[in-house]
Amino acid sequence: MSPVPYANANSTPNPNPPKPLRLLDQVRDKLRKLHYSPRTEEAYVGWIKRYIWFHDKRHPKEMGAAEVEAFLSSLATQRGVSAATQNQALCGILFLYKQVLGVELGWVDGVTRAKRPERVPVVLTRQEVGLVLQQMTGRDWLMASLMYGTGLRLMECVQLRVQSIDFGYRQITVHHGKGGKDRFVPLPAALIPGLQEQIRGSERLLAADLAAGFGEVSMPEALVRKYPRAPFELKWWYVFPSVDRSRDPITGRIKRHHIDPSGLQKAMRTAVLRTGIAKRASPHTLRHCFATHLLEAGYDIRTVQELMGHRDVTTTQIYTHVLQRGGSAVQSPFDALLGGGVRAAA
């Protein structure tokens, strides 16, 4: 009789073998391994669920490009979603097939595309920005001022970490911005004292958390494995941490997260209402103002493109609509009529 192989000599069958991950759990696991954000994970999983339900709960392995095209077309023709929403759904489904199922669908072509409306951004004048900021106080004022002074996106602002602010060179490093790109933005000198005080508040919060047996801040798990002490260091803490600790949905550990962006959104909405400005302005409007006011001040469009983190300069060109290249550069024929001595009826 031949000898029993060493690997099986002392092995016993596992009475409780691990169950294979369900499809959506596989999607979540892959997204987390590739360091996608929690917001992207939520969106992708949601669209994959809708895709499966649309086709009567058939497994995606049994379907292909034709079913994907039918689902995406229905979003445009029946639900009337925007072009951005339809594209997000497509990205989520393509991620499922390529990264989880190992199927390369390519970029599907036979889809009824949602129309992408050509809209110009809402922009406040410098005076209007000042009036809005006057209605805000404390942390909300500091965050809104920072967005206007740097062009940061809302999530870039709330996720800002202490080490990203360089007071010596008066600049902020935006890590992993939209499209995964890093960039530098100028740090307004007038905001330095407020930011330093805000960081001191984060330091006090860290000390209190450590004294209570906590002190960990949310970080990518890949970095935590490489630098186990990093989540307990001030440089990794958020400049704008949440008031309360919370349980991390992935690891189950109690951590300190960044503040909820909805707080600033509500504060901005209230401030605009108090000023009586008849414009639909949000925190993101402050980013539009940053770009427009820089162009008004004479900065070249390529510089503004880099500061905004735009991939294509055509995206930045939309801000020229308020400069002497848009409607304000054209004299209305009615004004010319009055200038010629013709009096209009009251």
Question: Overview of this structure, please?
Answer:
The protein has 346 residues and is mainly alpha-helical. It has helices at 6-9, 23-33, 38-54, 65-77, 83-100, 126-134, 138-150, 154-158, 192-211, 221-226, 262-275, 283-296, 301-308, 313-316, 333-339, and strands at residues 165-166, 171-174, 183-186, 246-247, 254-255. Strands 1-2-3 form a 3-stranded antiparallel beta sheet. Strands 4-5 form a two-stranded antiparallel ribbon. The model is unreliable at 1-11 (pLDDT under 50).
Proportion of beta-strand residues: under 5%
What kind of assembly state do the chains in view correspond to?
single chain
- Class by alpha and beta content: mainly alpha
Q: How many distinct helices?
A: 15
Task: Give me the secondary-structure topology.
Elements: H1 6-9, H2 23-33, H3 38-54, H4 65-77, H5 83-100, H6 126-134, H7 138-150, H8 154-158, E1 165-166, E2 171-174, E3 183-186, H9 192-211, H10 221-226, E4 246-247, E5 254-255, H11 262-275, H12 283-296, H13 301-308, H14 313-316, H15 333-339
Antiparallel strand pairs: 1-2, 2-3, 4-5
Helix pairs in contact: 2-3, 2-5, 3-5, 4-5, 6-11, 7-12, 12-13
